[in-house]
Amino acid sequence: MPRNGSRSPSGRSEGLPPGEAGRFRAALLQRFDRTRRPLPWRTARTPYRILVSEFMLQQTRAETVAPYYARWIRRFPSWDALAAASPDDVMREWQGLGYYARARNLHRTAQIVRKRFGGRLPADPRLLVELPGVGEYTAAAVASIAHERPVAAVDGNVRRVVARLLDMADPPASRVRRAAEQMLDPERPGDFNEAMMELGATVCLPRRPLCEACPVAAFCRSRAAGTPARRPGARRSRRLREAVFASAVFVDGRGRTLLARRPSKGLLAGLWEFPGSELPASEAGRGSEAPGPESPGLVEEVARRRLADFGLAAGACQRLEPVKHAFSHFRATYHPVIVMEQPGSAAPKRLPAGARMVPARPSGFRRLAVSAAQRRIAELLQRRLLAEPESRPLDGGALP
Question: Domains, the chain, ranges and CATH?
Answer without folding.
Answer: 18-230 (1.10.340.30), 241-387 (3.90.79.10)
